[in-house]
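Structure request: Coiled-coil domain-containing protein, Acanthosepion pharaonis.
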Amino acid sequence: MGVEICKKWSEHEDGVLAYKLQNEEIDFHYGLNRFNRRTARDDLPVAKEIQDEEEKRHQEERMRQLTLLHQRSQEDEKVAQKVYQEILMEEESQKKKAELDDEEIARQMQEKEKRKYERYLEKQRERQLKKEREKIEKRLAKQTEEARLSSTDGVEQVGNAMEALNLQNRSNIRVLSGGQLEDDGDFSDFYVLPDDVSCTERRIIQERQDEELAKLLQEQEHKNMYIPPP
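Returned structure:
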């Protein structure tokens, strides 16, 4: 920017210098002509008249030069104002560009920090989900083990109760002299389910009772049959 201003100002000074040299050349020729005319005429009035005319022309020329200088000064002022406005516009343009660059850099940094924070939150959620999943898996494993142990104990208890019932039922069956089977018991001595039995245990007991009942009914049908002789 400074180089451009110096260049424009140098061009302006060159023009002023050329104009000055031109004026000096005009003054030189004017003096030479005046000298020649004076030496060529011995008549003083004529010389005076010639001198007055030369001075008049010289004054007119000086006025013309002053007018030109004034015009050049105004033009120089316009050029300086134009250069100044161009400098201001260039500075304003660079300022706006710098502001835009700063805004872009700030936006990029903000986006980077935002992505970084989102990754941090994502990792936090993954760790939290992992902990929750481990807790659920442990709880399910514990419940499964408890259910397995409870089911095993219930099945064993049912088996023991049904075995005792079978022994009791068999002890009530007698063989009569006529070869018939007699049972003093009835179906009221079946195993009575307690209230705290689970659905699974109740189903197993009911199935076994149904099997025993079928066997007893079958044996009742044989009471009137004779035992074959040995």
